[in-house]
């Protein structure tokens, strides 16, 4: 990951008066990577790194203590993997507002699929540009999903292959209204709530309501799992 520049790494500019910075915990077993990530994140006045950890078990302790908005989580780590840590955090009702953004080297489909199932809110490659990282952190904190296109393609390909091997139609599709199907399609294309509202000519609050309804009806955790459902159910094809 390249060193941060001036303006390109500040998508939001200075934090607006009265707006609380996005609180982030950085988790990676390599100290040099943690340092680089902290330098990039701390360069943005709207983001505050409140803690870091070198393995999943320590990450759980730090998150429970600091209650961040976003955990920037590595996958392969000693003692407890990032996926196991996300599972623990997702199962804790007191940490329901904490969202996990997986930062991966993208070398194992099983790890990616496991992170999806665990409840990760997004995936980003470790060679992402600083501006991409900052934007991803902000979007995840706001409740959106972030999926690197390469990661999305690889994970979706695996799910589609599994669906073709067992092509039964997912009965949960029948639970969705036409409007919810439109919102699901837009989520699958990576649009934010604001962008979906503009496309469907409705308010951002209405979009959020539809997304909550989708998650409830489909018994899913977040928007990333909505994307996987859309592909694995056959609603959307690559």
Could you describe the 3D structure shown?
With 238 residues, the protein is an alpha/beta fold. The protein has two domains: 22-153, Response regulator (Rossmann fold, 3-Layer(aba) Sandwich); 168-232, Orthogonal Bundle (Arc Repressor Mutant, subunit A), CATH 1.10.10. 49% of the residues lie in helices and 12% in strands. The chain is built from ten helices and six strands, in the order E-H-E-H-E-H-E-H-E-H-E-H-H-H-H-H. It has helices at 31-42, 56-66, 82-91, 109-118, 130-141, 149-165, 178-188, 193-200, 204-218, 223-232; strands at 22-27, 47-53, 70-73, 99-104, 122-125, 146-147. Helix 2 packs parallel to helix 3 and helix 3 runs parallel beside helix 4. It is globular, with a radius of gyration of 18 Å.
Q: Which descriptors apply to this entry?
A:
238 residues, Rossmann fold, 6-stranded parallel β-sheet, globular, Arc Repressor Mutant, subunit A, disordered N terminus, alpha/beta, 2 domains
How are the SSEs ordered, and which strands pair?
Layout: E1 22-27, H1 31-42, E2 47-53, H2 56-66, E3 70-73, H3 82-91, E4 99-104, H4 109-118, E5 122-125, H5 130-141, E6 146-147, H6 149-165, H7 178-188, H8 193-200, H9 204-218, H10 223-232
Parallel strand pairs: 1-2, 1-3, 3-4, 4-5, 5-6
Helix pairs in contact: 2-3, 3-4, 7-9, 7-10, 8-9
CATH fold-level topology of the largest domain = Rossmann fold
Global structural class: alpha/beta
Helix content: 40-55%
Largest sheet: 6 strands, parallel
Distance, first to last CA:
29 Å
The total strand number stands at 6
Shape: globular
Classify the beta-strand content into a percent band: 5-15%
Question: Per CATH, which architecture of the largest domain?
Answer: 3-Layer(aba) Sandwich
User: Spatial order of the strands in the main sheet?
Assistant: 2-1-3-4-5-6
Poorly predicted runs: 1-17
Gyration radius (Cα, Å) is: 18 Å
Q: Write down the secondary-structure element order.
A: EHEHEHEHEHEHHHHH
Mean pLDDT reading? 82
CATH superfamily of the largest domain: Response regulator
Domain Response regulatory: 23-141
Region (Disordered): 1-21
InterPro entries: CheY-like_superfamily, NreC/VraR/RcsB-like_REC, Sig_transdc_resp-reg_C-effctor, Sig_transdc_resp-reg_receiver, Tscrpt_reg_LuxR_C, WalR-like
Protein name: LuxR family two component transcriptional regulator
